[in-house]
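> example.struct
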């Protein structure tokens, strides 16, 4: 029996998802296409059904994204950067308004701090869990070789 008719495991699917995530982080596919391909991956039962999902993407060697869990600039995961960008720009706008209106009582504090704390909690949890997951993946790779 050829390999394309063999049943794929959950671990096989997760490897494909990791490659798709890297392709999205590298700008090869957009979020909509990532979602479509993700649905194909989880619907696939055999290797033959998984193969087309990555067929138009280049073979991925160990890159900065796959080696560091989808990190952006400064070693932070891309999703953390995306999550904090609106906070930064809204708070810059608040500071500009505060300065333009006479720089009295520092009211931008009430925008920055609660929102920042609300973002800090999931960011911290996600980074810690992501590091633990990457260590687990590295350990699995070492055991395979």
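> example.seq
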């Amino acid at each position: 029996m050829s390999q394309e008719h063999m049943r794929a495991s959950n671990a096989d699917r997760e490897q494909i998802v990791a490659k798709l995530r890297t392709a999205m982080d590298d700008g090869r596919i957009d979020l909509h296409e990532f979602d479509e391909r993700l649905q194909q991956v989880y619907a696939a039962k055999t290797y033959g059904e998984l193969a087309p999902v990555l067929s138009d993407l280049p073979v991925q060697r160990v890159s900065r994204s796959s080696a560091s869990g989808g990190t952006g600039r400064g070693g932070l995961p891309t999703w953390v950067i995306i999550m904090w960008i609106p906070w930064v720009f809204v708070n810059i706008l608040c500071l500009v308004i505060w300065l333009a209106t006479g720089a009295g009582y520092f009211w931008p504090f009430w925008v920055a701090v609660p929102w920042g704390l609300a973002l800090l909690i999931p960011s911290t949890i996600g980074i810690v869990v992501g590091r633990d997951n990457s260590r687990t993946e590295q350990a699995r790779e070492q055991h395979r070789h």
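> remarks
The two ends are 26 Å apart (CA to CA).
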